[in-house]
Amino acid sequence: MAGTDYSQVREQYRELTELLIEKRLTITTMESATAGLIASLITDTEGSSAILKGAFVTYCNEAKIMQGVPAEIIETYGVYSPDTARAMAKACRAAYRADIGIGITGSFGNVDPNNADSVPGVLYYTVDFRGRLTTYRLDLDPLPTRLDYKMRAAEEVVETLLMMI
Predict the structure, then answer these.
(1) Which value, in Å, is the radius of gyration of the alpha carbons in the chain?
(2) What pLDDT score does 115 carry?
(3) Residue 5 burial by CB count (10 A; 0-12/13-18/19+): exposed, middle or buried?
(4) How far apart are CA 80 and CA 34, in angstroms?
(5) Mean pLDDT split into 10-residue runs, the chain, 165 residues
(6) What sign does the CA torsion over 111, 127, 86, 100 have?
(7) Residue 83 parent element (H or E)
(8) CA dist 74 → 53, 67, 106 (Å)
(9) Is 56 helix (H, G, I), strand (E, B) or coil?
């Protein structure tokens, strides 16, 4: 999969960004596993500054807590959990007063030695659309590179958003 052509995913993000602009809906993200890729793909389309309010890359637990995820959620349910993804989506949407908040967390090809709940290839993401939260689990088969994992997760998120809006 190395050298994969991601033009289809990029096209979906162009479509999403144009749709958000047309509908005057704002969006923000709090990304862990994807490390800001979703926000980056949104900004690849001209005019995205009208709809992307900002984004957080919260790769470690402390960063999530600093941006509004309750420490108790992480301590009780684990950082790689649907509960944490929901808290991330809610926190970023509230911080930026956006219409849509995306929270995404999970492990890719290896076990995270710092977090006992790490299951390689399992991600959780939540879409907070004006206070209505929907959480998804994504199980990824082994992929050759971290970019492949991130793009696959970003593809799943954009497909969800395009169906919702």
Answers:
(1) 15
(2) 79
(3) exposed
(4) 13
(5) 81 98 98 98 98 97 98 97 98 98 92 80 97 97 94 98 97
(6) positive
(7) helix 82-96
(8) 25, 13, 13
(9) strand
Inter-residue contact 48 to 22 (CB < 8 Å): no
Q: What angle do CA 17, 34, 121 make, to 5 degrees?
A: 125
Short-list 57, 55, 39, CA closest to 158: 39
Helix (H, G, I), strand (E, B) or coil at 12: helix
Per-residue DSSP letters for 109-145?
SS--TT-TT--BTEEEEEEEETTEEEEEEEEPPP-SS
d(CA 158, CA 38) in angstroms, rounded, equals 8
Burial 47-76 (b: 16+ CB within 10 A, else e): ebeebbbebbbbeebeebbeebbeeebbee
Task: Take residue 12 and report the two structure tokens written for it.
Answer: 């979906």
pLDDT of residue 110: 75
Q: Which residues pair with 11 in a beta bridge?
A: none
Tokens 């602009």 -> residue: 21
**pLDDT score for 1:** 40
In which element (H, E) is residue 156 found?
helix 146-164
